[in-house]
Design goal:
The protein is an alpha/beta fold. Helix content is 36%, strand content 22%. Strands 10, 11, 12, 13, 14 and 15 form a 6-stranded mixed β-sheet that branches. Strands 7-3-8 form a 3-stranded parallel β-sheet. A 3-stranded antiparallel β-sheet has the order 4-5-6, covered by helices on one side. It is elongated. The chain binds glutamine. Glutamine binds next to loops.
Length: 280
């Protein structure tokens, strides 16, 4: 890994793409080249802001984001196999303001978190809730969105609230806060863990589980596209979503927090959220 200014990286990348071949051997001296040129690879609006951030990334010129793109409307795949969603648009904008290209790695949720810990991604964004546990293994940015855990049941279910989940089989997604809560409260025998939320919902439709506990935003999407299901009124837990980085990577964390504050102030964050979640 090389320490370069983001601006230098962006400009350098255009020169080195053909020759670099994924190695980390080029462009090592940030001191010798002041970021005086305003031409970057990432567009005409990137001048003043990109020049002020100096970040080290896994791959020069690139912001690598690990995610699990099965969590609408935060991250999902499109018909042509690209990615979209709130996190995808947020990360695209953050990368742009850093003068970097965004590269998305779509993996299982728990591995998306591991990738920042082992240093194979720069950030993880996947509707990730800040928890005490996770804070011991990774650092989090300031929060950019909120979530709550909800319970999805069939329309004719006798489950009316969390208290009715005792003795039932609950579908969850592996590695999520929903899974942790349910195991804590009802024991692991009561919990059926799945690679993603939609698999858990499919099991609910097939009668293989009695309820699914998952974040509210994807729950709304899954219920809207699968008739016969409903979301119970009782919210299960209030959570803050944030961007995960490798523990101790304050350089990247500070840059991200500063960009998040700018995006909040200039309305970008709200515009992105409104694009995917109906305002009001
Ligand atoms: N917010 C939940 C968590 O962080 C679920 C995230 C997800 O399933 N992508 O565990």
């Amino acid at each position: 890994m090389k320490k370069l200014t983001a601006l230098l990286l962006a400009g350098f990348m255009a020169l080195s793409l053909a020759a670099c071949g994924g190695t980390t051997s080029s462009g090592s001296s940030s001191e010798s080249t002041e970021p005086e040129s305003s031409s970057t690879a990432s567009g005409e609006t990137a001048s003043a802001e990109t020049a002020s951030y100096e970040v080290t990334t896994v791959e020069p010129g690139v912001l690598t984001m690990s995610t699990n793109a099965a969590f609408p409307p935060y991250e999902m795949t499109t018909d042509d196999d690209s990615f979209e969603g709130i996190d995808v648009d947020m990360a695209t904008e953050i990368a742009h303001r850093l003068g970097l290209e965004l590269d998305i790695r779509n993996v299982d949720f728990d591995y998306a978190l591991q990738m920042v810990q082992i240093g194979t991604s720069d950030i993880a964004m996947a509707g990730i809730t800040i928890t005490e546990d996770r804070l011991t293994n990774m650092d989090f940015s300031n929060t950019y969105a909120n979530g709550v855990q909800v319970i999805i049941v069939p329309e004719d279910s006798d489950i009316a609230g969390p208290e009715d989940l005792a003795g039932k089989l609950i579908g969850v997604q592996t590695g999520t806060t929903g899974e942790m809560f349910c195991i804590d409260e009802f024991g692991s025998d009561a919990v059926n863990s799945n690679d993603n939320g939609m698999t858990a919902v499919s099991k609910l439709l097939n009668g293989q589980v009695d309820a699914v506990v998952i974040d509210n935003a994807p729950a709304q999407e899954f219920v809207a596209s699968n008739p016969g299901l409903k979301i119970l009124d009782t919210a299960y837990a209030d959570e803050d979503y944030a961007i995960a980085v490798q523990k101790g990577n304050t350089q990247l964390l500070d840059a991200i927090n500063s960009i998040l504050a700018d995006m909040e102030a200039d309305g970008t964050t709200q515009a992105i959220i409104d694009k995917y979640i109906n305002a009001g």
